[in-house]
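Q: Structure tokens for this one, please.
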Amino acid sequence: MTPMSTAIRHFPLYIGGERIDTEERAYGLSVRTVLDPGSPDTVRLLHLLREGSEEELHANPHVLCSAALAAPEHGQDALRAAAAAVPRLREIPLEARIGCVEDLHQAFLDHREELSHILRMEGCPKRLAEAQSHVLLDLVRPESLAHARSLLRQEITTPRHTIVLQRQPDGVVCIDPPANTPGTGLIAALALLAGNALVIRVPRSCAGSLSYALHEILIPVLEAHGLPAGALNVLCGDYEVLMEQWLESPLVNSIYYFGSSERGLALERKCVALGKKAILELSGNDGVLVWEDADLDHATAALVESFYGSGQGCIIPKYAIAHPAIADRLLDRLRAAASALRPGDPERSDTVLSPVLRATAFHRCLRESLAAGAVKICGGIQIDLRGEPDPQGLFIEPTVVRVDGFEQAENVAAVREETFFPLLSVVVPDDAPDLLDRCIAFLNANKYGLRNSLWTEDPKVIERFSVAVANGGLLKVNDSHVGHVSCLPDFGGTGHSGGTHGELAYPFLRTSRLQAVATATSRTHPWEAAVGAPSTEY
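A: Here is the predicted structure, written as tokens:
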């Protein structure tokens, strides 16, 4: 693969429309530093990170880019710039905001290849990097923005009034994207559609792809449309420092946080106490129900999505419920499909497996699950890049375990808690006349709630599932569990996945509030309108 220009790129801070450099740096590093820890380039890089010059670091093939690190005063400057931009953003008509975001479609197309290349160099498997690009393109295409327009402003005509239902922006929205998929920060930036001013933190541990997308795609489009300085502010900095500023500052209205349930729910409590809105995208523990008449080939393919990115994603299947009539056949297919997945260099192959840096947690979870009665179907060992067993290997064989009965499943941590490695639990309940209701009850009892899926050909089962499964922001039927659905967001959930007010989350809706404007179209005396004859307009 021909090296691209990203290897020598530097990204400054972006505050109030100004590009600001600092002496401190964060470096975006290639996945090769993990895959080839003993190579001369990696060894030299570790030395250069301690005492090398910037020129020497940029010359190292494992360095993708550098980003200026923000000091505390930069964080305060960004908040002031965002607050100053809010009243000017409110004056920009919705159509103008939509036109600005619409131009992102071509900008993403122009930079798609290089953005995908950077994602692969960071360790995102090629197929998954391409899927991320597809989602970004879909969210800013005309059809998606037309849907956004309908959600942001609606007009109703009655015999006596014209009623406008419109979304008013929260104001200053601070976004903290996840380090494992920093590109989601771009999706959260659709909060701009509602007229918000944004401050986005670039995780210093993964600075490459998000910095590139913000500086090379988003910022140029916003500047070309003449959005107010401060509409978007970009800081690469420490989570603890910036989050403390965001919580303490009276200028901040909302905090958009991606991360663990434990940290996110604690953040929500702090925000409520301080009068701020917390928008949470947290851990997931998605379930898939495979009914007795399911297309097993397609259902198996959807369950194999559990191993995409080696299970290190929130919206992938974590456990399945298999109807006892087809459980053995499904498990046979899963064993074959999971065993066929092999590791590979994310930058150069079509593998869906990624390095796993939490092997100790995986082995502990697997041991506890087996001790609680689960039975291993396949996988369970560490392997190297070639797929050979290696106790120090950076990859883990895709692992499937079987758990018999809902009662036993309640005691298996791999079923009830989020796992973040390639481990899929298949629960096989006892057959009974009320089996569907018990399956739905089990899905609803999950304390997490991002997505749930169903595989069946029975319309009655589909209807019952759709009505009764209240857990989750998105329900999928006979479809890829992780696949993007046009005009729908990939975000949002209930319970420990979305917090107290969690739901399917359009960023521009979650960062705005509903307001009604009622304009009388007939001359009715206020006395009559308030306490006179009953209205007949409805």
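A few notes: Residues 1-7 have pLDDT under 50 and may be disordered. The two ends are 66 Å apart (CA to CA).
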